[in-house]
Design a protein that fits this description.
Blueprint: H1 3-9, E1 12-13, H2 19-24, H3 36-39, H4 41-54, E2 58-60, H5 80-97, E3 108-113, H6 128-145, E4 149-155, H7 158-171, E5 176-180, H8 194-203, E6 208-212, H9 217-220, H10 223-230, E7 235-238, E8 244-247, E9 250-253, H11 257-269, E10 274-275, H12 283-293, E11 308-310, E12 315-317, E13 323-329, H13 335-342, H14 346-358, E14 363-366, H15 375-389, E15 394-397, H16 401-410, E16 416-421, H17 424-437, E17 440-444, H18 455-471, E18 479-482, H19 494-509, E19 512-516, H20 527-540, E20 545-548, H21 553-565, H22 573-599, H23 648-655, H24 658-670, H25 675-695, H26 701-722, E21 731-736, H27 744-755, E22 759-762, H28 769-779, E23 783-787, H29 794-807, E24 812-816, H30 822-827, E25 832-833, H31 837-849
Parallel strand pairs: 1-10, 2-3, 3-4, 4-5, 5-6, 6-7, 7-10, 13-14, 13-20, 14-15, 15-16, 16-17, 17-18, 18-19, 19-20, 21-22, 21-23, 23-24, 24-25
Antiparallel strand pairs: 8-9, 11-12
Helix pairs in contact: 4-5, 4-12, 5-6, 6-7, 8-10, 11-12, 14-15, 15-16, 16-17, 18-19, 20-21, 21-22, 23-24, 23-25, 23-26, 24-26, 25-26, 26-27, 27-31, 28-29
Length: 854
């Protein structure tokens, strides 16, 4: 029976931890577990047999870390294929020899694929396609070995998850399961919520999804209803055996098999269908789960029919409040934007995106189409760079199918696609891309005959698009129709036809609708009055989204009043905030105008009512100052401020704008500002803003790292003025412990420490305790940071700490990693447990600089 058919029949049991059992069988600290497939195959067979005999329907091959970075066939190391073939052979033999009352009739082998251990570009140094190929090598080996399905697990980065899923889909026809590792806040390390991951993974057409590792069953429990509530696929849950601690040099956990089974029974009641265990769980845990749940009937898997898009962090729903799509990243009618595209001024484009986000846009439209540029290359670059500085989902807007595919492939999340239309050629070009990569598709109601004049004809095209999409397996909930707003200056019934089409699509197809609102007023004076009124009329007909200028005051006023009047704004709090900001901005503009009048300065007339200052268009709600350049992040007027913590440099660092940070620093240096003053009054305060936002979970890892890169660009300019050798603080060693090649956490800590002027000595990954101790002695280091991802390598961390206590007793040790907790850190003798990178920075400041209370 196919594994998916078996899952549809009822509960499906996976295995538990691999490292936990192998440690019992003699796996040494730092030893690579995958080598046992070749060197100790009988023990790997024993591992699998015990899980099958505990009631597992499927076990994973012992290949969690079997990627090409570790197994390259060089210097006596086996290849990925050799490791996976050996592992699969052991798993099959385990199935053959398993016997007893708990052995399931249908037994399966899953190819286990874990994280690579590196951060992908643009915030890391591993290219997306390199990651895809590393995973593809594993998939091809698994297919050759004869596995039954592919299990991608313990992924704490949405982008790496996508790379792994694409590799699986492009190199096999096997079912694909994907499981992510969420932290206590219910997010991935890079910020993704469960809802965002469901949107991304369902778009990529995995066959099951869920959560594993990092947390025990009690801590994972709140995520289960969220996953089940968002997903139309079977949900799998593989918790740890509670929280880890160290006893006599061994890692143990605080949840018993019976307690674990009790929690898993609740998890089934919440809707999970696929059950297993992760770190610390053994065959006893799986047997207890089988005993507790075997008579339970799981909840049916149901279609949720949700219309959503996602970024690497956020999910935006089109099923509730109207969605605002920022239109400013588009060259149409924008001379400055066209020049920015021709000059490859990415910073200008990023500022447009950031400012629209600050002005209240929910999704950003991205269109870079000009005849004289390489649109596929530039669109791809802009998508990557924008996703590095904003967490908003993006709308990929292009008529170039090649550009569309390249952008969809590297997009981190489930994008909005603009667009397809009723022409057969268009649908046959776009729908295969949506089927492969996922997306929420804008469908223009035009076809080979052009744009119909009547609502009835536009409805017919919408119906035709819906039917064609279904041939590609694209659901109606992944389509949003644009019934096309045409200017009333040439046809005074144009607005009525569009409004009727919105209503008909909603009532007849149950479809969602979106409009490019401003088209309605083309050719008319005071366009914003017509546009805003039409916006409200369309919303009253059921419009779900609008592509609009978020800096347009009249549009924002229409939107916020509509929400308040339609019970979509609790206690009218958003309207009150909007109105307050608008009043404040009007007062500022009136004061500025009066000041100009008094000083005799030329510059035009301020318009307090609309928040528009002379010299450009501003939005009172977004904190835009005179000169037409929005700066919602800092709320400063054009010309900026050099006050501590509120400068243009500060804003550039907070927003992660590298080029702008370097440019603003150079201007400060040229203006005679001392290098140390720039560091202390601008760079460090900006980093503190980001760090505190990260600690408060209001900013995410990509934003943290891009801010660090912006700070680096600023430091480069400062060093030019100060000379080499300045700004180097106390030394800190960072290392990933022996046997562990996952250096993501360590690298993040390194970047942040360097930005706070510490002299970081990076010893790399898989580092012997002796090397760490020797370096600490030679360099007289007072703080060492140790990282570990895997349970099997934590004993090597403890060994390193013990050696440092003997060889360098005045050295403090801070530890971090997915498997660690405060209690565990205390038990292995660490001085500090850092739950995130900023905690390490704070501790370094406390220990080495004497700072407290940051």
């Amino acid at each position: 029976m196919n594994v998916l058919d078996r899952i549809n029949k009822g509960l499906f049991y996976l295995d538990g931890g691999t490292g936990s059992v192998l440690q019992e069988l003699g796996l040494k600290p730092g030893e690579l577990p995958e080598l046992w497939n070749i060197n100790r195959p009988d023990d790997i067979v024993e591992l699998g047999r015990r899980y099958y005999e505990a009631g597992s329907n499927a076990i994973c091959t012992n290949t969690f870390g079997a990627n090409g970075l570790k197994y390259d066939g060089k210097e006596g190391r086996p290849t990925v294929e050799e490791v996976i073939l050996a592992a699969t052979k052991c798993a099959r033999k385990a199935s053959e020899v398993a016997q007893g009352p708990y052995v399931q009739e249908d037994r399966y082998v899953a190819l286990d694929i874990g994280p690579i251990g590196k951060i992908l570009e643009p915030i890391g140094d591993l290219k997306f396609e390199q990651a895809v190929e590393l995973f593809a090598e594993q998939v091809r080996a698994g297919v050759k070995a004869g596995v039954d399905y592919i299990y991608i697990e313990t992924m704490n980065d949405a982008y790496e998850t996508k790379a792994a899923v694409l590799a699986a889909k492009e190199n096999s026809n096997l079912p694909v399961f994907a499981s992510n590792a969420y932290d206590e806040s219910g997010k991935l390390m890079t910020g993704a919520s469960p809802e965002a991951m469901v949107a991304t993974l369902e778009g990529l057409r995995v066959d099951a999804l869920g959560a594993n590792c990092s947390l025990g069953p009690e801590q994972l429990m709140p995520l289960v209803p969220r996953l089940v509530g968002a997903s139309s696929l079977p949900v799998m849950i593989k918790p740890n055996a509670g929280l880890p601690r160290s006893e006599n040099g061994k890692t143990v956990y605080d949840v018993t098999p019976e307690q674990f089974a009790s929690y898993m029974k609740e998890i089934v009641e919440h809707g999970a269908r696929i059950l297993g265990g992760c770190c610390g769980t053994t065959p006893d845990f799986i047997r207890a789960v089988v005993d507790a749940t075997r008579d339970m009937q799981p909840k049916p898997v149901t279609e949720k029919k949700l219309s959503v898009v996602s970024s690497y962090a956020q999910c935006v729903s089109f099923d509730g409040r109207p969605v605002l799509i920022g239109e400013r990243i588009n060259p149409t009618g924008k001379k400055k934007f066209k020049e920015a595209l021709r000059n490859h001024d990415i910073g200008y484009i990023l500022n447009e995106g950031i400012n629209q986000a600050d002005a209240g846009a929910h999704v950003l439209d991205v269109n870079v189409g000009l005849p004289e540029i390489d649109e596929p290359a530039l669109l791809k670059e802009c998508i990557q760079e924008l996703q590095a500085v904003t967490a908003l989902p993006l709308q990929i807007d292009t008529t170039d199918v090649d550009a569309m595919e390249q952008a969809m492939r590297i997009y981190n999340g489930k994008p909005m696609i603009n667009s397809v239309n009723g022409k057969l050629e268009s649908m046959e070009a776009v729908f295969p891309l949506v089927k492969k990569y996922g997306g929420y598709v804008v469908c223009l109601t035009l076809d080979e005959d052009g744009i119909p004049e009547t609502a009835e004809k536009r409805y017919e095209i919408a119906e035709k698009i819906t039917n064609k999409a279904s041939e590609y397996g694209i659901k109606p909930c992944d389509l949003i129709f644009d019934p096309l707003a045409m200017t009333i200056s040439s046809d005074n019934r144009a607005a009525l036809a569009t409004l009727d089409a919105i209503r008909m699509i909603k009532e007849g197809l149950g479809g969602k609708t979106s409009l490019g609102i401003s088209n309605i007023s083309f050719g008319l004076p005071s366009r914003e009055y017509v546009t805003a009124s039409f916006f409200i009329m369309a919303l009253n007909q059921g419009l779900n989204a609008a592509i609009m200028n978020p800096f347009a005051f009249e549009m924002q006023k229409a939107y916020h009043t509509y929400l308040a009047l339609n019970a979509m704004d609790e206690s009218c709090m958003e309207y009150i905030e909007f109105a307050s900001k608008a009043a404040e901005e009007a007062a500022k503009q009136a004061e500025l105008a009066a000041s100009r009048l008094m000083s005799g300065a030329a510059g035009g007339t301020a318009n307090g009512a609309s928040g528009t200052a002379a010299g450009g268009t501003a939005n009172g709600a977004s904190g835009t100052g005179a000169g037409g350049t929005a700066n919602g992040a800092s709320g400063t007027a054009a010309g900026g401020s050099s006050d501590k913590g509120s400068s243009r440099l500060n804003t550039a660092i907070v927003k992660g704008l590298k080029e702008e940070a370097g440019r603003e620093t150079a201007l400060l240096v040229a203006g005679g500002v001392d290098g140390l003053e720039i560091i202390n009054d601008h760079i460090i305060p900006a980093l503190d803003v980001v760090g505190k936002g990260f600690e408060a979970k209001t900013m995410y890892l990509p934003q943290l790292l891009m801010s660090a890169e912006a700070a680096k660009a600023a430091f480069v300019e400062v060093k030019k003025s100060m000379g080499e050798g300045n700004g180097n603080g106390p030394g800190v060693i960072v290392a990933t412990v022996k046997g562990d090649i996952h250096d993501i956490g360590k690298n993040i800590v390194k970047v942040l420490l360097e930005n706070y002027s510490f002299n970081v000595i990076d010893l790399g990954k898989d580092v012997d305790p002796e090397i760490i101790a020797k370096t600490a002695i030679e360099k007289d280091i007072k703080l060492v940071g140790l990282s570990a991802l895997m349970t099997t390598t934590v004993p090597a961390m403890e060994e390193t700490i013990k050696l440092l206590r003997v060889e360098k007793p005045d050295c403090k040790v801070v530890v971090g990693g997915a498997v660690l907790t405060q209690e565990y850190a205390d038990m292995i003798g660490a001085d500090k447990y850092a739950g995130n990178a900023m905690e390490t920075v704070r501790y370094a400041e406390e220990i080495l600089l004497g700072k407290h209370g940051n």
